[in-house]
Amino acid sequence: MKCRCIIVDDEPPAIKILETYIDALSQLEIIGTCSNAIQALELLNTEKVDLMFLDIHMPKLMGTQLIKSLSHPPKVIFTTAHKDFAIEAFDLDAVDYLLKPISFERFLKAVNKYCQINHIEFEGASADPGFLYFRSDRKMIKVFLNEILYIESLRDYIIIHRENTSKLKVKLTLSSVEMMLPPNLFLRIHRSFIVSLDKVTAYTKNDVEIGKIELPFGKNYTDALNYLAPKTKDL
Question: Angle between the 104-117 and 12-23 helix axes, to the nearest 10 degrees?
Fold first, then answer.
């Protein structure tokens, strides 16, 4: 039997990321998404919910206040950009407390904890989440992870360089997108570059090659060499 989940968050990009992560796990099923706690309360009154991914700072009613208002709340994994509510969250018997931006790896750890508490066999993800959504030109654009060659930082933006399609400019920091990417598929090699490991064709101690493109190793990222060595497919 699948775990019935809802996502409660007032930020559409945050909902999209969690939807992508949940879809990658066979144990989880999304039965609804809500943009505020009032909508969540209405859904909880009509549907059986096993697990709620719940933001804290929302209009009208905070996530922690929602939990306090429920006689029999479902299990909760808080998802928030704020560290200050961690103690209160665990006092409310939260399964976990995830700080945004949430990486797929950290998401898996939280779900695994839920499965252990509820004696559910956890198989993990059979693969990466497949794609992520990024906001660009007032749209949420689906980017398949296997199309990404590398990601470049450009001041307050990132440039996602993709295979056989146009590059995408997104208002995000490179550190933020690093947290969103599966660490077994992507590697940061420089303060300005993240590479797709499957697309690396060669490297030296000074640079990484993706086809004819050469990207430098940063002096603070030389440890990446140890991780890159067994992962490259063509040296």
Answer: 60
